[in-house]
């Protein structure tokens, strides 16, 4: 009897301790080998950090060595290309530091790539990217060119643009030494065990036919690049198949959501419709004020019921500017919370920070709802879907 009492007491204490414990507890599932977390700091260059991080993973997956590729090499060259197009269009283009994953793959095709140690791109006195001045100076310059005070553009304006870019990012080397070998940026790109032609972008919206390509209509798509359009369930099947077969995924998403908590590194889509609740949950919800409901939904004290995401919900959020092209990251694996709910583990580019050393956990409903597009190796796409897309 005494032994039974002690056992019951221990169980009660353990239960009470668990009941008092708040927050999310994640257990990682399948994880893809990835390079270190970087820090884009005060620059809108997530598109480049995430795409290069994802390509670094691809290099390792293909049997290459772990390496750190230069983000600013791409940013500097893409800024030049964007400025030229901006001037050609008389300013009718989004001229800002934002971009997309295809900026990186297309940039590598045209300009090659170099290791981080060869081109850090920080030629203005800081240890991390700080773009407030760079952005303002470049925008002022191209706007002055568009005003065309001579009534015709001079032959010097692109040289002037390159002068500004060289001043802030540094002159681009024509050749460089890396681990005992001499390369050009192009030959270094060719030496990598990956092919830029293997990478494709996918999205899922109903304002264009499925299994077609369309130019995704977001301001940062200054290059007017196309994505392959698939139904939501097939977009998620691509993500699942990629992870299962050791491919990471470049992920463009919207993080300007109440369900995204930067400090806790969690993103969820809480159920807020009483019609989708039952029993005591519905009764409790119905008795709350709007403020109390908001606090309950976004306290992030513990896992709760999330919305069931539909294709129509995705489309309405996109059409009404509730889903916007905010941020680029890399999906590197899966996880579950303490209730068994599924999540994706995501590598960010905001530096190594707590609580998960720069990694974030996004619930599966959040990824279903807020994905703008993904970029993957075409070989990561299930064969039946690849056939529908003609890949």
Tell me what the structure shows.
The structure is a single chain. The chain is α+β, with helices and mostly antiparallel strands. The chain has one domain (23-269, 306-389): Cathepsin B, Chain A (Alpha-Beta Complex), CATH 3.90.70.10. It is built from 13 helices and 13 strands. The strands form 2 sheets. Strands 1, 4, 5, 6, 7, 8, 9, 10, 11, 12 and 13 form an 11-stranded mixed β-sheet that branches. Strands 2-3 form a two-stranded antiparallel sheet. It is globular.
- CATH H-level homologous superfamily name: Cysteine proteinases
The secondary structure category is alpha+beta
Query: What is the number of independent domains?
Result: 1
Q: What form results from the Cα inertia axes? A: globular
Count helical runs. Answer: 13
Q: Keywords, please?
A:
13 strands, two-stranded antiparallel sheet, about 400 residues, Cathepsin B, Chain A, disordered N terminus, eleven-stranded mixed beta sheet, alpha+beta
Would you summarize the structure shown here?
39% of the residues lie in helices and 15% in strands. The chain has 391 residues and is of the alpha+beta class.
